[in-house]
Design goal:
The complex is a heterotrimer. Chain B is mainly α. Chain B has 14 helices and 2 strands; from the N terminus they run ααααββαααααααααα. Chain B starts with a helix and ends in a 6-residue tail after the last helix. Classes of the chains: A alpha/beta, B mainly alpha, C mainly alpha. The complex binds adenosine-5'-triphosphate and magnesium ion.
């Protein structure tokens, strides 16, 4: 098959705060092949956003700092790039969509300008051509009357529409990689599926590989080729989607799957959540970070950190006692 | 949850600079508070702010036992070296200006002086801040007059201490006025809204056109003589203090109102309401105690404005009248004689600068300690 | 023709106001404009009412001022009548208000042949020169410095800028004056080039007062620009701009600064109010023949019309500045338009 498009190796990202060093991402490795969709799931606060921001070096620094690892994009280490190389990559070959469409667009510029700006930066088009491209993209993300809405400001759009605009910006320069950090979490449930389908369809059309971050396993099931599960700053399980759903290896993945809402659960009722709290990322105890919440934990789990090891065909898990 | 967060942010942001961004203008928060739909459909879902919150609790926990927010803030303040030094300076100046004059009257040698220069004058006399040693004008520092004498032969150190006393008295008076009125009107306006809220908004608008100094000048110019007739030499100062108070309280009330509005939406207030607490009880038990930090921080900053306003008014000759003393008055007196004795003006200037800077830096520290999210 | 030239400033002023209103109505909306204007009218009315009431209840009237209390009865009556002081409260108020609307403040109590307006037109330009150049300078230097400090947050430059601006902001302007004098006199005594320490008749006399007047506002703008910039730089849309691969320069100026500017704009009005008090003291200490010093003399002489006119003028100026700020804000921030 084709070579790895993105290859993240032993990435470590820490936050240096007054309270101590927050090890938000510890030794995370994964890859994405060209054109495929990789899901990254995990509880809130486990480091998904920090991982994705680290890839494009978009972390606020200080307090955030990438302290180790490599992020190879088509063989080039992003962490070693200089300013120009990085700017050419961002928005050009690799684009990103964020969680909150309400705050991700600049309130003082019309959306047409905000799309055209990205186009001009990467495709070297003139103003007029860039605007035409903006109209085309707005059409593609199915915003009605695209040409007229070019001059509208973000606050004149609903959340779902704004996220479509974000998708338009992200895909406007034909990126090879799209990083989507919980693109639908902030949206109304009824809109979520629409936006997701749109994104999926366009990604296929543009032959763009996608890193889809979510904490909704339903989304993963519908969209991803492979899934990585994250817990407390580490990858705890990696497997093709079908395998993961059929045969989850890590107790944490199992717990996640057990907690997925089913269609017969009444809306708004409390679901079988995972008991206990995610650990404090400042003072991580030795051993498996999931051990305190794990029903199968043994003495060894509390003493030693389980490495990510192959446990089945194409399946890896960081657990001494998988399945 | 998110909505509260963002409104708090706009609140503290304007607060930090000691300025409200156009009080009374409905523009201030426009557009920032759009509803955000975050429907929990999933067990993994909590907002990032939750983890931020956890982080803060962690901080408190790592410090030992769990602390109340106010104790935690005070502890943070205690660790702020600059603020602590400033606090020490302020306390020293306040205490010294009241206590030291008592001893000062008995310190120093008898000097040769009086109207004809042949009498023996004891420190009880010449260290009294109104005593004029007419043959010893604009004297440089000496054993008898550590900081020298002014253009009327008065001891500068004695007058400085009296001046600091005036600053402090005015500051205290205005602050009490400010906090009491600001708290009452602010809480009522935030809690009930309605006409009292409208009144606050309109009054703030109005006072916005009257900067403190301008209003105090107007008041002193028109009503000054009447106050002096009615209340004696202190009348002017009282009038000026009231005028300053009238211009500062709306600011305080607006901060309090904003905070009250936020508190009102919080769950524990809702819970108290459900369990049948009266409005009065909710305000006294749940709202007012939670206003502590915002009031303390705003008051500290207001003191700076008050002290400078008093000095400015006295400098303009509309506040403290001779033979009384005030830092502003001393600056103005000395300003007439910069060609003869420039150093005379430096003493009150330096004293006022130290006082004002110490309070500002303390206020800055208080603000950081009590509103930690601003400093991350 | 003569009358036209006399009223020219007023006419230009009115035209500018009308122009701004029309522009606002088109850009932001008529309702927004009406609400702002209603607010302005209320503030102007309130300010004039307070000014009048304080003057009305002030002890000592024109008559006493005019002849040291030794006037014959008939003359007292005629003076009282001349200044309208023989009328009742409401009549006097109506008189005051209707004249104030026409920008007519009557005659000085000191000299019934001197119109207050003549006094104003003689002394206000000097003060305006001082005030406007000070504030303009403060904005022109303070905003870029605050911006730079925010971009370089937590560096040595930032720390210095922040501490310096905190000091300058906290210290009243008149505290700076003695230090300025100290420096200039020492320079002078040492035979080095120095600037004048009083007066307003040459450029070298103007430098000190303008710098000192602007210092507080300068510090204020540094602080508010820095704070808003830091706030904006943390926003998601700045991250979006970076994620698009825009150059840092574009991110800072086009995306961050444009938003921070909205905040800074709202602070211009308050900053003016904050700075205006300094005029009185700086004029007094530097011996500048402006309206501040003149009104201090007027206060001493109980020449209330002059005091009232001065206060009213300043308050109206601040209220207008606030209106302009709001309007500018409405224009700068597209979110206001479709409210
Ligand atoms: N600026 C910061 N300062 C300190 N800690 C931070 C900061 N940003 C993130 N963290 C920490 O890093 C950890 C990972 O955060 P991250 O945002 O990646 O979580 P996430 O998996 O994306 O969660 P969510 O589902 O809520 O988006 C969290 O524990 C958080 O406390
Ligand atoms: Mg996230």
């Amino acid at each position: 098959m084709a070579e790895k498009l993105l290859d993240v190796q032993h990435l470590r990202t820490h936050f240096f705060t007054r309270a101590g060093v927050v090890k938000a991402v510890e030794d995370v490795s994964f890859y994405i092949d060209e054109g495929e969709t990789l899901g990254l799931v995990g509880e809130s606060g486990c480091g998904k956003s920090v991982t994705s921001l680290s890839i494009l070096r978009l972390l606020e620094s200080p307090p955030g700092k990438i302290v180790g690892g490599k992020v190879l994009f088509q063989g080039e280490d992003i962490l070693e790039m200089n300013r120009e190389e990085l700017n050419a990559l961002r928005g050009g070959r690799a684009a990103m969509i964020f969680q909150d469409p309400m705050t991700s667009l600049n309130p003082v510029y019309p959306i047409g300008y905000q799309i055209a700006e990205a186009v001009k930066a990467h495709l070297k088009l003139d103003d007029k051509a860039a605007m035409n491209r903006a109209v085309e993209m707005l059409d593609r993300v199915r915003i009605p009357e695209a040409r007229r809405r070019l001059n509208h400001y973000p606050h004149e759009f609903s959340g779902g529409m704004r996220q479509r605009v974000m998708i338009a910006i992200a895909l406007s320069c034909n990126p090879q990689l799209l990083i989507a950090d919980e693109p639908t979490t902030a949206l109304d449930v009824t809109i979520q599926a629409q936006v997701l389908d749109l994104m999926k369809g366009l990604a296929q059309e543009f032959r763009t590989a996608t890193l889809l971050i979510t904490h909704d396993l339903g989304v993963v099931a519908g969209s991803c080729d492979r899934v990585n599960v994250m817990y407390a700053g580490r990858i705890v399980e990696a497997a093709p989607t079908t395998t993961l759903f059929a045969k989850p290896a890590h107790p944490y993945t199992q717990a996640l799957l057990a907690a997925v809402p089913r269609s017969d659960t009444p809306k708004g009722s409390r679901l079988a959540a995972i008991g206990g709290q995610p650990p404090n990322l400042i003072n991580l105890a030795p051993g498996c970070p999931f051990a305190p919440r794990c029903p199968k934990a043994q003495a060894r789990c509390r003493a030693e950190l389980p490495p990510l090891e192959t446990v089945g065909p194409n399946q890896q898990a960081a657990c001494f006692y998988p399945y | 949850m998110r909505i509260d967060e963002s409104s708090e942010q706009t609140g503290t942001q304007s607060f930090n600079d000691g300025y409200s961004i156009n009080p009374g203008s409905e523009l201030g928060t426009a557009g920032f508070l759009e509803p955000q739909l975050a429907i929990a459909t999933n067990p993994l879902e909590t907002t990032l702010s939750q983890s931020e919150l956890d982080l803060r609790t962690q901080e408190a926990v790592t410090e030992g036992q769990s602390l109340s927010p106010i104790e935690a803030s005070l502890r943070r303040l205690g660790r702020d070296k600059r603020a602590m030094v400033c606090l020490a300076v302020i306390i020293f100046m306040v205490v010294a200006s009241y206590v030291f004059p008592i001893f000062y009257l008995h310190m120093g040698p008898n000097i040769q002086g009086g109207i004809f220069g042949n009498a023996s004058v004891p420190p009880e006399l010449y260290h009294y801040m109104q005593h004029q040693e007419l043959l010893n004008l604009d004297a440089p520092s000496s054993l008898a007059h550590p900081l020298g004498t002014d253009q009327l032969g008065r001891d500068i150190l004695a007058r400085l201490m009296a001046g600091v006393n005036v600053s402090i008295q005015v500051a205290l008076f205005v602050e009490i006025f400010d906090v009491v009125l600001g708290l009452i009107i602010g809480v009522l306006a935030g809690f009930f809204g309605g006409w009292i809220d409208t009144f606050l908004a309109r009054f703030t608008d109005l006072m916005f056109a009257f900067p403190t100094l301008l209003f105090a000048i107007l008041a002193a110019a028109t009503l000054g003589p009447a106050f002096v007739d009615a209340l004696g030499p202190q009348g002017r100062l009282i009038l000026v203090s009231i005028a300053i108070g009238i211009t500062v309280w709306p600011q305080m009330a607006r901060f309090v109102r904003g905070q009250t509005l936020q508190l009102k939406e919080q769950q524990f207030i809702e819970a108290a309401r459900m369990s049948g607490s009266s409005n009065q009880r909710i305000m006294m038990q749940h709202i007012v105690p939670n206003l502590f930090s915002i009031v303390v921080a705003a008051a500290t900053l207001d003191i700076v404005g008050t002290i400078t306003a008093e000095a400015a008014i006295s400098l303009l000759g509309l506040g403290v009248e001779p033979p009384g003393s005030s830092l502003g008055l001393m600056i103005n007196d000395a300003a007439q004689r910069i060609n003869i004795s420039l150093w005379e003006i430096l003493w009150p200037t330096i004293t006022l600068s130290i006082l004002v800077l110490a309070i500002s830096f303390l206020g800055d520290g208080v603000n950081d300690a009590f509103n930690p999210r601003t400093k991350d | 023709m003569d009358q036209l030239s006399q009223n020219l400033p007023g006419i230009i002023f009115l035209l500018v106001i009308v122009g701004i209103c029309a522009f606002t109505a088109i850009r932001v909306g008529v309702r927004f404009l009406i609400r702002r204007l209603a607010g302005l009218v209320f503030v102007l009315w309130g300010v004039s009412f307070i000014t009048f009431v304080l003057g009305y209840f002030a002890p000592g009237n024109a008559v006493l001022v005019n002849c040291n209390g030794h006037c014959p009865r008939a003359q007292v009556a005629s003076l009282m009548h001349f200044y309208g002081l023989d009328q009742g409260f409401w009549q006097q108020y109506w008189h005051f208000l209707s004249n104030a609307v026409r920008l007519d403040f009557g005659y000085s109590y000191i000299d019934r042949t001197v119109r207050v307006n003549d006094i104003l037109s003689r002394y206000v330009p000097v003060s305006a020169q001082l005030g406007i150049s000070g504030v303009v300078l403060a904005v022109l230097v303070g905003v870029p410095l605050g911006l730079y400090a925010a971009v370089k947050a937590n560096t040595a430059f930032d720390t210095v800028a922040q501490t310096a601006s905190l000091v300058l902001f906290a210290l009243p302007s008149f505290v700076l004056i003695p230090f300025y004098w100290l420096i200039m006199i020492n320079l002078h005594n040492a035979g080095l080039p120095s600037l004048a320490v009083t007066g307003w008749d040459s450029w070298d006399a103007m430098v000190g007062p303008i710098l000192i007047f602007g210092a507080g506002a300068f510090a204020f703008f540094v602080r508010i620009t820095r704070a808003s910039m830091l706030e904006v730089l943390r926003q998601d849309y700045v991250r979006t701009a970076r994620a698009k691969g825009l150059q840092e320069r574009v991110v800072i100026w086009k995306h961050a600064f444009r938003n921070a500017l909205i905040n800074v704009l709202t602070a211009v009005g308050p900053a003016l109010g904050f700075a205006v008090g300094g005029v009185f003291i700086i004029e007094l200490l530097f011996n500048i023949p402006g309206i501040g010093v003149y009104s201090l003399t007027a206060i001493e002489n109980r020449d209330y019309p002059v005091v009232q006119a001065t206060v009213l003028l300043i308050a109206v100026f601040i209220a207008l500045a606030n209106l302009l700020t709001d309007v500018a804000y409405g224009i700068a921030d597209p979110r206001i338009k479709t409210q």
